[in-house]
Model the fold of this input.
Amino acid sequence: MPKMLATVVDNLVSRPATRPHPYQRREAFVRARGRIIFDISRCVFCGACALRCPAGAIRVNRAERELVFMPFQCIVCGACVEGCRRGCAQIIPQYHSPAYSKPEEYYRAPLPVREDDQL
Ligand code: SF4
Ligand code: SF4
Done:
């Protein structure tokens, strides 16, 4: 009984062992694999990242100059980052926010202006 009482008192005066996520964020560890982002201004829509992705989390439409990323399908393996020679796929040490749905992220580059569009 005295031992249990000591445990109860200890638990009452000690700080909680967990954080109130997502209200209080923890600093990411060095080289943490948080999530993937794309710098679409450098993308040539070659599709190499989509071919390497084991989770099928990337779709590339070269004609429309569009890259679709499914963050909730991504396992943050980094294969797209290694496979992108343009350096547009990057891992950042920030975790994705919790969400009620699983939206896709659309990255679009402006279509090149054709000569007949300028007339
Ligand atoms: S992100 Fe990189 S690998 Fe993927 S389509 Fe763009 S240039 Fe190609
Ligand atoms: S990190 Fe891995 S799973 Fe995520 S998009 Fe890139 S290749 Fe696919």
